[in-house]
């Protein structure tokens, strides 16, 4: 309003874009604000490329040296926080090259010989994701260590085990914590597996077809720590399955973290009261002075949704793209960066919570003793000691539970004469299996919840972590 068509290039966004369609084009095309994060990998890729160009005599050695030295200066500037940010430069690849040209002059123009931004970005991004995997792996390892340490400490702490969130059988807290250690171990293997697949070099694929220059792809691959060059130039510039592998491993990992976070949220609630979260991981309410909210755990739970969204976003972006490169693929980076940042924070928060949470064994034991949690132990006793078929033992036990419920007592508080009205084959020996401690102690099968079994599995896990 008030702006004539002449003054404005476009009625809808003319105020912002003075230059008309060309300015909109620049805006939609620009990715520098996001892919600035690739500067380190971009310069490493260029260093490997120019060293190879010099060694192969594709550019004069003196020029290659001048470019290498100039790239070092660009890197130093970026390191000092002066990463190019002029949006006119389009993306980080153009930006570093433009800065190089300012520093070393026209010789900079030789750097892009036998290379395209297509193989350049594929290389940079692979390098970035590789570093990201290593970082996540370190974070996961710290979380495993925290889980194992707390599991060892709580190997004999009795708590209710749940199915359907109904009290099922007593378990030990150490056992419960080690369950998450196992999930995290599998998450690590997924990341490590994707790292192995990712670790091949696209550099030298050029735009899509390879190049007529006598490049040495083994040399650049080795210089960048890749196991080998990728075998097909079309594949090299057009697939982003390495980024999807990362995102899908991240999504699975985030799901595990969110389930652990959810346990903390439930355990910290007043009706449960199994833990008190330290101040460092809680917040108060602006209106209810008594509140201590498990915000960090809730945010880990929430972040999992966003990470899954990132994986979905890139899957959909890549779906149905024709070979080789299409500009849609520029949208590969934001979901990976976002997921990585969220996962990193979630890992730090979960590790911190696991390390510092205060468990409340008294509350856990009281809950474990409710809900007739040792009913299965009674049934098993009838099978083992009296030779009763399990199905029949199940019925007998059901009647005993009904009686206890009616009398408002625990199973082990039922007097023997009352138990014998249910089934005359029951004798005093049954009381040895009805307590929660007896119940957990009896479950010594491999991977079971008995304290000694938990200690053995924790020791195994610790030894594996120490061996790394
Ligand atoms: N910024 C681009 C990206 O991230 C770099 C590749 C550009 N290639 C091209 N053919 N326009 O995908």
TrEMBL record:
It is found in: Cytoplasm. This is Argininosuccinate lyase. Residues 452-468 have a biased composition (Basic and acidic residues). InterPro entries: Arg_succ_lyase_C, Argininosuccinate_lyase, Fumarase/histidase_N, Fumarate_lyase_CS, Fumarate_lyase_fam, Fumarate_lyase_N, L-Aspartase-like. It comes from uncultured Sphingomonadaceae bacterium. HAMAP family: Arg_succ_lyase (MF_00006). Its EC number is 4.3.2.1. Belongs to the lyase 1 family. Argininosuccinate lyase subfamily. Residues 372-441 form the Argininosuccinate lyase C-terminal domain.
């Amino acid at each position: 309003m008030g702006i004539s068509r002449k003054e404005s290039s476009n009625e809808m966004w003319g105020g912002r874009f003075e230059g008309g369609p060309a300015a909109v084009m620049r805006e939609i095309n620009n990715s520098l604000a996001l892919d600035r994060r690739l500067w380190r990998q971009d310069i490493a890729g260029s260093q490997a490329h120019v060293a190879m160009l010099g060694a192969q005599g594709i550019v004069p050695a003196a020029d290659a040296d001048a470019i290498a030295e100039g790239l070092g200066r660009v890197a130093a500037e970026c390191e000092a926080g002066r990463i190019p940010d002029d949006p006119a430069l389009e993306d980080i690849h153009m930006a570093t090259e433009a800065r190089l040209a300012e520093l070393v002059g026209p010789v900079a123009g030789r750097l892009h010989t036998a290379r395209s931004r297509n193989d350049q970005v594929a290389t940079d991004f692979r390098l970035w994701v590789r570093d990201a995997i290593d970082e996540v792996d370190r974070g996961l390892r710290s979380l495993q260590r925290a889980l194992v340490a707390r599991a060892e400490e709580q190997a004999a702490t009795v708590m209710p085990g749940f199915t359907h969130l109904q009290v099922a059988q007593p378990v030990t807290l150490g056992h419960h914590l080690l369950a998450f250690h196992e999930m995290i171990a599998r998450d690590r293997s997924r990341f490590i597996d994707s790292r192995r697949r990712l670790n091949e070099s696209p550099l030298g694929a050029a735009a899509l077809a390879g190049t007529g220059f006598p490049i040495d792809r083994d040399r650049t691959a080795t210089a960048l720590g890749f196991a080998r060059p990728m075998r097909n130039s079309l594949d090299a510039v057009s697939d982003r399955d390495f980024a999807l592998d990362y995102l899908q491993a991240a999504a699975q990992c985030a799901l595990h973290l969110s389930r652990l976070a959810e346990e903390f949220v439930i355990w910290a609630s007043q009706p449960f009261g199994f833990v008190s979260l330290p101040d460092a991981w809680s917040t108060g309410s602006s209106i209810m002075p008594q509140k201590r909210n498990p915000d960090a755990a809730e945010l880990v739970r929430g972040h999992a949704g966003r990470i899954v969204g990132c994986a979905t976003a890139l899957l959909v972006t890549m779906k149905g793209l024709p070979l080789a490169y299409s500009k849609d693929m520029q949208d590969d980076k934001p979901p990976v960066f976002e997921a990585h940042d969220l996962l990193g924070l979630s890992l730090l928060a979960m590790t911190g919570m696991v390390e510092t949470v205060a468990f409340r064994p008294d509350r856990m034991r009281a809950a474990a003793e409710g809900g007739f949690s040792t009913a299965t132990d009674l049934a098993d006793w009838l099978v083992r000691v009296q030779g009763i078929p399990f199905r029949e033992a199940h019925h007998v036990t059901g009647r005993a539970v009904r009686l206890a419920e009616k009398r408002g007592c625990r199973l082990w508080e039922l007097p023997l004469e009352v138990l014998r009205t249910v089934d005359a084959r029951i004798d005093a020996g049954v009381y040895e299996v009805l307590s929660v401690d007896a119940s957990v102690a009896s479950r010594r099968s491999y991977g079971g919840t008995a304290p000694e079994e938990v200690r053995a599995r924790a020791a195994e896990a610790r030894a594996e972590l120490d061996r790394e």
